[in-house]
Design a protein that fits this description.
258 residues, seven-stranded mixed β-sheet, two-stranded antiparallel ribbon, 17% helix
């Protein structure tokens, strides 16, 4: 027998290879179970008594102790969803849902949002993570870039919706997250946030262009409870509103391209 051989048919290298395969399979199984701590079990369209979790099964609940002294358990029992403002387009399970109300605020399709905590996200030091520049004088916009402050915001219909009056920055990953707009009287006249990823800032002519919603639809952007802070739930609802506009702002966007 050669060096490292255990028997005439198996050697140490084979044993190590088989152990690696077993370890890798167990690792994949563990990771697949852990990623089911959120979003499972799925809701069944056949019956409320059917538990849709697939293979492998969901892990046992685990309690996480957070830095602020609170705890979170996952997976956790989710409260039942209320009636969805949409109906299946066909009688079979898995059929696409067609909105029955205003999908941009009803949380349907691309306008869906998670039921996150209605509290602001915090930095490691315990401060609000996303704040407007007016309460954070140590931060400023890069003078090399076009400043959106004072620019007029135009909707997808090229009509003015308001003016940029402030920028909201992320203190943990220093960059602009939102633009704060003062809407025109036709659009409600209030202050709303615009996620910067939905905005195209132009130098010439100086303007902010938004392709997702029309000018008058800025009046329906979800607002803030406090003028100088945004909560996790408010962030999700605001982003969902603009995201939903890419499909629902005008009826033609729901039609096929071909």
């Amino acid at each position: 027998m050669g060096t490292g051989a255990i028997t005439q048919y198996i050697d140490l290298a084979q044993v190590v290879l088989y152990l690696f395969w077993a370890f890798f399979a167990a690792l994949v199984l563990y990771i697949r179970r852990e990623d089911k701590r959120e979003g499972y079990p799925l809701e069944s369209e056949r019956s409320a008594y059917v538990k849709v979790q697939g293979f492998p099964a969901m892990p046992q609940p685990k309690t996480f102790h957070l830095r602020d002294g609170t705890t979170r358990t996952a997976p956790r029992a989710e409260p039942p969803l209320g009636p969805i403002a949409a109906e299946p387009s066909a009688p079979w399970p898995g059929a696409p849902l067609e909105p029955t109300g205003n999908p941009m605020v009803d949380g349907v399709g691309p306008a869906s949002y998670a039921n996150r905590a209605d509290v602001p996200d915090h930095t490691f030091e315990g401060h609000n993570r996303i704040v407007p520049l007016r309460v954070c004088p140590q931060h400023a916009l890069d003078p090399k870039d076009a400043s959106p402050l004072g620019m007029t915001v135009y909707g997808a219909d090229s009509k003015p919706a308001g003016t940029v009056v402030d920028a909201w920055v992320d203190l943990t990953e220093p960059h602009v997250r939102y633009l704060e707009l003062e809407l025109t009287e036709d659009a409600g006249g209030r202050h709303v946030l615009l996620p910067v990823y939905f905005a195209r800032i132009r130098r010439s002519p100086a303007r902010v262009q938004v392709a997702s919603i029309l000018a008058h639809q800025f009046a329906g952007v979800p607002g803030l409870k406090q003028p100088d802070q945004v909560t996790l739930l408010e962030e999700d609802r605001i982003c969902a509103y603009y995201g939903g506009g890419h499909l629902y702002a005008v009826p033609d966007r729901q039609e096929p391209f071909v």
